[in-house]
Amino acid sequence: MDVSWEDLGWERLADGIGRRRMPGWDATVGLVVGEDAVLLFDTGSTVREGAEVRAQAQALLAGRRIRRVTHIALSHPHFDHVLGTAAFSGVEIYGAVGMDALLRRDRDVIRADAVRHGVAPDDAAEAADLLVAPQHSVCGEWTLELGGRQVLLANVGPGHSGHDLALLVPGAPEVVFCGDLVEESGELQAGPDAIPSRWPAALDRLLSLGGEDALYVPGHGAAVDAEFVRAQREALAARFGVS
Q1: For residue 143, what are the β-bridge partners?
Q2: Is 165 in contact with 153 (CB distance < 8 Å)?
Q3: Are strands 38-41 and 11-14 parallel, antiparallel or unpaired?
């Protein structure tokens, strides 16, 4: 019998599109299934989490022509979104331009941040040692053909970080994976690498990508609509004194 998204604790967003809200930090991991390729959006906070996502994806893909994740897009370089990447082999990895150099340079910073937020030191050290940088840098937009479906990677930042990548999956509805440019389960987090003066413009770009009827999937929390993203944009502009 086929395994459903819900059987494995995933949320089905549209045909061939789903996401899981990972334990601990409620970070989103997204999956987009095409006929010839499968794209994963973010990978979790440890190699163990990444391996669990990999196994679940393989279960969901049982009986299909393609039975494994072939492509990964990383929304931004924070630990809870990238440290599971080493669990996947033979994949094409995409990130906003400059993210590859940052991950190679700052792996100790990312490890320390993970530990500070509660990841076991051994797990954080393993993931940092094995941290995989993107082979493909997205400057502007990059269309990927997954077989029967095209998706668009868009470098919409900086904002929440210096390297914010969004994913648009056309359809009915359009689905936009936003990374931590949008958060629903708590207040937007502006850490030391955030660029608040550019963040509202990044949200304007998300809204132009998806439009009024899209489903917007935040980096943390429940999926939202354009009105929510617009309200968060206005709150950010007021908070940081930008237009």
Answers
A1: 152
A2: yes
A3: unpaired
Residue 1: pLDDT over 50: no
- Pairing, β 92-96 against β 71-73: parallel
150-155 and 28-33: which strand pairing? Answer: unpaired
Phi/psi at 134 (nearest 5 deg)?
Answer: -60, 140
Q: What whole-number distance in Å separates Cα of residue 140 and Cα of residue 121?
A: 36
Alpha helices in the chain (DSSP H): 47-60, 79-82, 99-105, 107-116, 121-129, 199-210, 226-240
DSSP, residue by residue, 161-173: SSS-EEEEE-SSS
The total of other beta-carbon atoms located within 10 Å of residue 149's CB is: 20
- Provide the angle, in degrees to the nearest 10, between the axes of the packed helices 47-60 and 121-129: 70
How far apart are the C-alpha atoms of 16 and 103, rounded to whole Å? 30
**In the chain, helix, strand, coil percent, each to 5?**
35, 25, 40
The predicted pLDDT at position 2 comes to: 59
Question: pLDDT tens digits for 145-195?
Answer: 999 999 999 999 999 999 999 999 999 999 999 999 999 998 888 999 999
Q: How far is CA 215 from the centre of its chain?
A: 15
* pLDDT tens readout for residues 107-160: 999 999 999 999 999 999 999 999 999 999 999 999 999 999 999 999 999 999
Quote the pTM value: 0.97
The torsion region of residue 139 among left (phi > 0), alpha (psi -120 to 50) and beta comes to beta
Cβ atoms 183, 217 nearer than 8 A? no
